[in-house]
Amino acid sequence: MRPLPTWPIAAGALLLGFAVADVSGVRALGGVVLFLGGLACGLRWRVLLGLPRALALVAVFLAGFALAHPLGHAIGAWPAVLLVAAAVGAVAWRVADAPAGVRA
Question: What pTM, to 2 d.p., does this model score?
Fold first, then answer.
């Protein structure tokens, strides 16, 4: 049985974190969701890939979060979050979740 993939957790944490912050009006609540999703992925990536590659994927996750803010000013908040979540999910899939012959 294959382990639970991390790409939907990484992408979902970005989407759900923004949704919680947007709907509740409390950015800190969205930050908690983002933190928990990033932590879950980071811990799993460490087991799957080792610490250096796990830290690189966490950096991609955090860069996506940071990039969504200025991108949101240019194309709108939700489109920016959707785009960034898709990109982070794709990177996570390619590096951590793809079958061994496809991984980077």
Answer: 0.92
Sequence-ordered list of residues with C-beta below 8 angstroms from that of 5, at least 6 positions apart, any chain: 93, 96, 97
Q: What is the CA radius of gyration of the chain?
A: 14
Taking each helix axis as running N to C, give the angle between helix 51-75 and helix 7-24, from 0 to 180 degrees, rounded to the nearest 10: 40
97 Cβ contact list (under 8 Å, min separation 6): 5, 6, 7
> For residues 98 and 96, what is the distance between their CA atoms, to the nearest angstrom?
6
| Residues of the chain predicted below pLDDT 50 | none
Residue 36, CA distances (Å) to 2, 51, 71, 72 in order: 23, 18, 23, 23
pLDDT digits (tens, 9 = 90+) for 76-104: 999 999 999 999 999 999 999 988 776 66
